[in-house]
Amino acid sequence: MSLFLTPPAAPEYAPFYHTYVKLITGDPLEALRRQPQELRQLLAGLTEEQTLFRYAPGKWSIKENLVHMLDTERIFAYRALRIGRGDTTALPGFEQDDYVPASGADARPLADILHEYDTVRAATLSLLESFTAEAVGRLGTASGQPVSVRALAYILSGHEAHHLNLLRERYLPGLQ
């Protein structure tokens, strides 16, 4: 039985993460296991040129979105590791808008990004599945706000659900 079935309470995460948390009903680890297949279905048949599509000026390309999802997953998993292991050091935030241009995503083949995605997801699941009930309930500080390991599992899977919705609603219709 998953230790993550009980959604986090409001004091376990900053209010701006509620958008992600509310997207996950049920076990966030199951969502993390399902999402790779959902992502591949959404991307099926896209050409390399299409993965450079931006639905509006100044928005990220599809590839940049994918690498942003990877960067964010790594950072949130790292936060879960530190907090889950009892580290009480306040963890810094990160500026996603600085990470994306530095990623070089658009110059990478989609197949390479998807391989990295699989590797990162496997590591994230392995980490989350390793936690004890005590670790899942641990509370730490990230970006100046309280966050629990449980909340991070919901935020991780909810963040990806949010970006999958963006692909469906804003990117793919623009390629039709």
TrEMBL record:
Residues 31-166 form the DinB-like domain. Gene3D superfamilies: dinb family like domain. InterPro entries: DinB-like, DinB/YfiT-like. SUPFAM superfamilies: DinB/YfiT-like putative metalloenzymes. This is DinB-like domain-containing protein. It comes from Hymenobacter swuensis DY53. The lineage of its organism: Bacteria, Pseudomonadati, Bacteroidota, Cytophagia, Cytophagales.
